[in-house]
Specification:
Layout (H helix, E strand, L loop, with lengths): L2 E9 L2 E8 L8 E10 L1 H7 L10 E2 L3 E9 L1 H7 L6 E7 L6 H4 L31 E4 L3 E5 L6 H4 L2 H15 L7 E5 L3 H13 L3 E6 L4 H9 L4 E4 L5 H8 L5 E6 L4 H10 E9 L13 H6 L3 E4 L6 H13 L9 E4 L3 H8 L11 E4 L1
Parallel strand pairs: 9-10, 9-12, 10-11, 12-13, 13-14, 15-16
Antiparallel strand pairs: 1-2, 1-4, 3-5, 3-7, 3-16, 5-6, 6-8
C-alpha cells in the first residue's frame, strides 16, 4: 500500500489516472479504503470545466462508500468510529462561524472542505476524491456509519442520492399522505424523489421522461410511480388533468434541468401547491416562467440544492427499515481505469450507453 490511484481532472476534458503516495496519518486524520463511488451529473459538468472554476488538479468523486483503514486517536473521538467501520461521507461541518453555518446550512459554507470538487489534490495528503483506491479522512468532514448488511450498490446511494430525495420531495416539497406528485426527470434524483414520495404516503406519483428513458421509467415504477409519462408521446399537462380529475398535483419536483419541463411543471401545480426545482439547466440558459400563474395560484416556488446533513441518516434508516432494494437503479459499474468513459456515458455522450445509475469500483 505504497500508493493510491486517483482519477485526476487536470483541466476541462483532461482526466488521467494518477498515482499518489499514501500519506502519514496524524492524530486527527484517517485513511479510508474506497469500496464504491457514485457518478452523478455534477461529475459530467466538472469534466467539461464546471461554471465557477475548479481547483485543478482534483480527484473527482463525491458519492463515497468506504471502510476505515487507519485512524488517528483524535479522529476516532471526532467521528465516533473505529478502524474497520464501513462509512459514507457526505457534506462537512463547515467553519461554524459564517452566516450560513449560523443558520444551520453548513452545505453553503465557503470554507468547508469537500471531496470530489472543492479541494485540490495538488498538495499532501492529496487524496480528496472518491474515484480512487484510498481517501484521506479530514476532521471536518461528516461521517455516517453504514450497516454491513446493506449491499455496496445500495449503501453508496444513501448520502448524495436518496438523501436528496427526502430533502427535496418531503422536507422542501412537503409531500404527505394522499398527495399527488409530479416528478419531472427519471434519473437518479428523480428516482430518489419517487421513493421518498411513496414512503411519505403519496397516493399518485407521476414520473416523466423521454423515449430514451424507457429503462429509467420502468425502474420508476418499482420505486413507487403510479403512472409514467413519455413526454415525446403524451402531453404532460393533459395527462395530469385527466389523472387528477382536473385538480392538478399538490407537489411537483423538477429534476430534469429542461426548460420546457420546468415551464410545464408550473402549469401542473394546483392552487396553493408547491414546485421544487432541483435540476440545473445548462449554463447561460434562461427559463421563462408564467409568473402570473405562480401569483394567481399562490404556488410556492422552492429551489433545492443538495441536502442537509441529517437527511443522510434519515434516508439510511428508512432504507434499512423498509429493506427496499434501492440498488435496483444501478445499471452499470465501471473500473477506476474507465472513469472518463463512465462519466461521459452518464452525460449521454456515448451512443448506446445510457446508465440509469453508474458506479466506480476501484
Amino acid at each position: 500500500m505504497a500508493s493510491s490511484r486517483g482519477a485526476t481532472l487536470l483541466g476541462p476534458d483532461k482526466l488521467e489516472i494518477r498515482e499518489y503516495p499514501i500519506p502519514d496519518i496524524p492524530a486527527d486524520g484517517g485513511l479510508v479504503k474506497v469500496e464504491m463511488g457514485g457518478v452523478c451529473g455534477s461529475d459530467f459538468k466538472y469534466l467539461h470545466g464546471g461554471k465557477n472554476g475548479l481547483p485543478y488538479p482534483l480527484i473527482l468523486g463525491h458519492e463515497i462508500l468506504g471502510r476505515v483503514e487507519k485512524l488517528g486517536k483524535e479522529a476516532a473521538a471526532i467521528h465516533g468510529i473505529k478502524e474497520g467501520d464501513r462509512i459514507i461521507m457526505k457534506g462537512a461541518k463547515g467553519c461554524g462561524r459564517c452566516a450560513h453555518c449560523r443558520r444551520g446550512a453548513a452545505r453553503f459554507c465557503k470554507a468547508r472542505i469537500g471531496y470530489g470538487g472543492q479541494t485540490t489534490c495538488a498538495n499532501p495528503p492529496h487524496l480528496f476524491g472518491g474515484f480512487a483506491d484510498y481517501l484521506y479522512l479530514v476532521p471536518d468532514i461528516l461521517v455516517t456509519k453504514v450497516s454491513n448488511d446493506l449491499p455496496a450498490e445500495a449503501a453508496v446511494l444513501i448520502g448524495a442520492v436518496m438523501a436528496n430525495g427526502y430533502q427535496w420531495a418531503v422536507r422542501q416539497g412537503g409531500v404527505k399522505m394522499s398527495d399527488s406528485v409530479l416528478i419531472q426527470g427519471p434519473g437518479q434524483q428523480g428516482l430518489a424523489c419517487t421513493f421518498a414520495s411513496k414512503t411519505a404516503g403519496a397516493a399518485k406519483i407521476f414520473v416523466t421522461g423521454m423515449g430514451r428513458d424507457a429503462e429509467r421509467l420502468e425502474v420508476a415504477k418499482k420505486f413507487g410511480a403510479t403512472r409514467t409519462i413519455n413526454v415525446e408521446e403524451e402531453n404532460v399537462l393533459e395527462v395530469i388533468k385527466a389523472e387528477t380529475g382536473g385538480e392538478l398535483v399538490d407537489v411537483a419536483v423538477d429534476v430534469s434541468g429542461n426548460v420546457q419541463a420546468i415551464k410545464t411543471s408550473v402549469e401542473c401545480v394546483r392552487t396553493l401547491g408547491t414546485l421544487v426545482v432541483g435540476g440545473l439547466t445548462r449554463d447561460g440558459v434562461d427559463v421563462p416562467l408564467n409568473v402570473n400563474l405562480i401569483v394567481r395560484r399562490q404556488i410556492r416556488f422552492q429551489g433545492a440544492f443538495t441536502t442537509d446533513n441529517d437527511a443522510t441518516e434519515i434516508a439510511m434508516n428508512t432504507i434499512q427499515a423498509s429493506k427496499f432494494p434501492v440498488e435496483q437503479m444501478v445499471t452499470h459499474t465501471f473500473p477506476l481505469e474507465e472513469t472518463e468513459k463512465c462519466i461521459r456515458a452518464v452525460g449521454g455522450e456515448i451512443p448506446g450507453l445510457y446508465p440509469v445509475k453508474a458506479l466506480i469500483k476501484p
